[in-house]
Amino acid sequence: MKKCLADCLGNCSEKMSREHYLSAGILKIIGNGAGIYVSGYSWCPVGERIKVGIGSLQANILCQKHNTELSALDSNAISLFEYFSNIEDSQRGKKEASEIKIETTVNGDLFERWLLKYVIGVMYSKNASAGKSEINKRFVDDEIVKILFGLIKWPITQGLYLDDSKKIGLSTKCFNTNLWAHAATGKLVLAMCDFHGLPFTLMLSNTDRPKEELERSDLIHNHVYHPTKVIINKMSERYEVKILWSEGVEKGGDVFYFMP
């Protein structure tokens, strides 16, 4: 039997689940039920996007019990991507603007952990890598698994950032993943993921530099930590995603995007 990545928590079920490292429900939204273009995986040519079937983006990495315990992460993320998909359909003339909700709400803690679930999945299944090859084995340790399951808190400055430095174009059928490792230690520092045209960044380890310095650097320049609202503007249209964070979590400000 293959090892569940959460076996450090104990009480694994005997049967493994064939887990999509990007949730099946989100793949259906982004890929419209068909093929999807991806880049940044270990089997993709550098700098190129390739088309794959949705069913190929999965691996046996979680037992059924632990996979079920993370279902709330998937449901929360799916609601967010459905909202973005509806906006895109409106821009493409597939839906009337009057049919689209102006505002929606998402749980930030759950979405942050969902993004971590995705990064863990591609790393643990060896579909993505960064820096030295051994990074895959070192990355999924007991601490990161406990953060994934909400048993311990994220270290300060780690977790979700949003890049607000550029225009966006909501787009289905493609997503991109880039992983950055520390040059000296080979430890994974950042996962930069473009899903549906939005640039999400997950900081995964300390870099021994103060947050103020990170915010001035090219690596994290114009990134907002734990944003509380995402505002999307296109001419006279305006859409808002309110992001709710649990009490005690450091929060950032609003993120503004302009659609061409």
Model description:
- This protein is an alpha+beta fold and 260 residues long.
- It has one domain.
- Helices cover 27% and strands 28% of the residues.
- The chain has helices at residues 24-31, 64-69, 71-91, 108-124, 135-139, 142-148, 211-216, and strands spanning 16-20, 36-39, 50-52, 58-63, 103-107, 159-163, 174-181, 188-195, 198-203, 223-225, 229-234, 237-244, 254-258.
- Strands 3-2-7-8-9-6-10 form a 7-stranded mixed β-sheet.
- α3 crosses α4 (108-124).
- The relative contact order is 0.16.
- The mean pLDDT is 79.
Put the structure in a nutshell.
With 260 residues, the chain is of the alpha+beta class.
Strand composition percent: 25-35%
Strand order of the main beta sheet, please?
Answer: 3-2-7-8-9-6-10
Poorly predicted spans: none
* Total helical segments: 7
Spatial gap, N to C terminus: 50 Å
Mean pLDDT equals 79
Outline, from the CA principal axes? globular
Cα-atom radius of gyration = 18 Å
- Content-based structural category: alpha+beta
Residue share in helix: 25-40%
Structure summary, number of beta strands: 13
Total separate domains: 1
Secondary-structure element sequence?
EHEEEHHEHHHEEEEHEEEE
The description of the largest β-sheet is:
7 strands, mixed
